[in-house]
Amino acid sequence: MIRSLDHLVLTVADLQATLHFYGKILGLQVRSFGEGRFALHFGAQKINLHPVGGGLMPVAKVPQAGSADLCFLIRGTLEDQIDALELAGIPVELGPVARSGASGAIRSIYLRDPDGNLIELAEPLVEPLPAVPRTAFQLRPATTADAAACLEIYAPIVRGSHISFEHDVPSQVEFAARIARYRESHAWWIAEREGEVVAYAYACPHRERAAYAIAAEVSVYVAPQAHREGVARALYLELLAGLQQAGVHKAYAIITLPNPSSLAFHESLGFRPLAQFPAAGRKFDRLWDVAWWVRELG
Ligand SMILES: CC(C)(COP(=O)(O)OP(=O)(O)OC[C@H]1O[C@@H](n2cnc3c(N)ncnc32)[C@H](O)[C@@H]1OP(=O)(O)O)[C@@H](O)C(=O)NCCC(=O)NCCS
Q1: Is any atom of ligand 1 closer than 6 Å to the C-beta of 256?
Q2: Superfamily assignment of 7-124 in CATH?
Q3: Average pLDDT of 270-279?
Q4: Which residue has the higher pLDDT, 111 or 73?
Q5: What pLDDT score does 218 carry?
Q6: Mean pLDDT score of the chain
Q7: CA-CA distance, 219 to 198, in Å (whole number)?
């Protein structure tokens, strides 16, 4: 099974011109390795540079300079990038244009590197939050008196699944304290139908250190009898709108795998995969992977 992409290889005709373009103009980190080899680093990935006819083996069946088409996500705005390219005398062939990137909507420009490879530079766009839909459920902030009803939804998940990483069902007192704590720092919403609590969603601190206050962690639990009726969507939109208003820029969902319903649900609300932690926790005597998904709130 594939976990992630480690590196790509770019065949280049003129190594120095390539290092100048990617290092000085696009700002990628140039590092040397092995015997006189060079790579362009960004985050946890890199692109190794293979000079044409450089004798490195093995290589692709048809190694060719100028046949690649690469898309990089940029920091900052596309307009700043366009100014920098103009100063460097590099023409933008197309754009800005709207595109779909691997992690959501992007705005792109297209240019060429010294070999004529097509380079797309893209700025991630924040998808606006849809309005909270009209729903047959009554949504309201939770109180500590909702602890028992929320636990009724949560306890079977703790006991019977890997979805929650708690090993033991928390007591009602402990759960009430959790509601109070999360309401104090962020929010906890309830959905009722005919007076019965059928779902809840909350936001809580992502990490304790002050700088992390730009982000929050969110989660939602729906009683089985109310699945696929739009209640989680309504609760999340209420929750995310509140976070956005409070100046929170990112909502993280931390999802133990497998959980196809949760992945599909989060994807439908504009969350995108950010990282996956293999064998991140032990429950029921086995290890489970955990995925972190993010929803940019602007
Ligand atoms: C994941 C969960 C919260 C979804 O709640 P829900 O109220 O059924 O979801 P909604 O009806 O609001 O669904 C909104 C959209 O999410 C997607 N979705 C939700 N459940 C899905 C499923 N089982 N399969 C595929 N898509 C799903 C769909 O796009 C859906 O829109 P649609 O019904 O118009 O196609 C619910 O299944 C649940 O409580 N699961 C157990 C607890 C859990 O996993 N919580 C998340 C912890 S990370």
Answers
A1: no
A2: 2,3-Dihydroxybiphenyl 1,2-Dioxygenase, domain 1 (3.10.180.10)
A3: 91
A4: 111
A5: 98
A6: 94
A7: 15
> Which of 265, 290, 293 best tests ligand 1's pocket when mutated (most atoms within 8 Å of CB)?
265
Ligand 1 atom nearest the C-alpha of 266 is: 16
Could you give the strand order of the β-sheet that contains 104-112, starting from the edge strand earlier in sequence? 69-73, 118-124, 104-112, 94-101
Spacing, Cα 286 to ligand 1 middle (Å):
25
CATH number of 138-296: 3.40.630.30
Q: How far is the CA of 265 from the centre of ligand 1 (A)?
A: 4
Task: Out of 154, 228, 257, 289, give the residue to mutate to test ligand 1, the one with the largest number of ligand atoms within 8 Å of its CB.
Answer: 228
Check pocket membership of 185 for ligand 1, CB cut-off 6 A: no
Say yes or no: CB of residue 229 within 6 Å of ligand 1: yes
Q: Tell me, in angstroms, the distance from the centre of ligand 1 to residue 160's CA.
A: 18
Alpha helices in 214-255 (DSSP H): 231-245
pTM for the model:
0.79
Ranges for all domains in the chain classified under CATH 3.40.630.30: 138-296
> What is the distance between the terminal CA atoms of the chain, rounded to a whole angstrom?
34
Per-residue pLDDT tens over the stretch 217-237: 999 999 999 999 999 999 999
Instruction: Look up 86 and say whether it is catalytic.
Output: no
Give the residue from 77, 55, 103 showing the smallest Cα distance to 295.
103
Alpha carbon separation from 202 to 59, 110, 161, 185, 298 (Å, rounded):
51, 41, 20, 11, 20
C-alpha closest to that of 223 among 259, 192, 181, 183:
192
Give the C-alpha separation, 229 to 2, whole Å: 34
